[in-house]
Amino acid sequence: MKYQQTLVKLIQFSIVLLMLYPLYYVWETDKIKSACEQINPGMSYSNTLVLLKSFGLDFSQMNGDYAQGEKWQGLVESHASFAGYACEIRGFGDQIAKVRMVKGKQIAP
């Protein structure tokens, strides 16, 4: 009897999660898309960070060092997407050069 109650509660919890996940996915991916659309080539790295922070986002991956004047690439990835959904931001030094949305296999490792 006790195991049946536990099983019922587990199934109820799973159903609630399955109902809430699509809402979370849409909310998070929309937030990333909106932030990405506001980032333009020529913006400074620091202004980009301020914009991302205003959306509650940050770089999940970063290659290169902007402070040393190198080419760099940053990803703002969705935690809700199983297939991969991210805003890819590339720059040189303190300037943004390119911004694009990437999905799935387009996301560079």
Textual characterization of the structure:
This protein has 109 residues and is of the alpha+beta class. The chain has one domain (2-106): Beta-lactamase Inhibitory Protein, Chain:B, domain 1 (2-Layer Sandwich). It is 43% helix and 25% strand. The chain contains two helices and four strands; from the N terminus they run H-H-E-E-E-E. The protein has helices at 2-38, 45-54, and strands at residues 61-63, 71-77, 85-92, 95-103. It has a four-stranded antiparallel beta sheet. Strand 3 and strand 4 (95-103) form a beta hairpin. The longest helix is centred in the N-terminal third of the chain and has 37 residues, at 2-38. The termini are far apart. The mean pLDDT is 90.
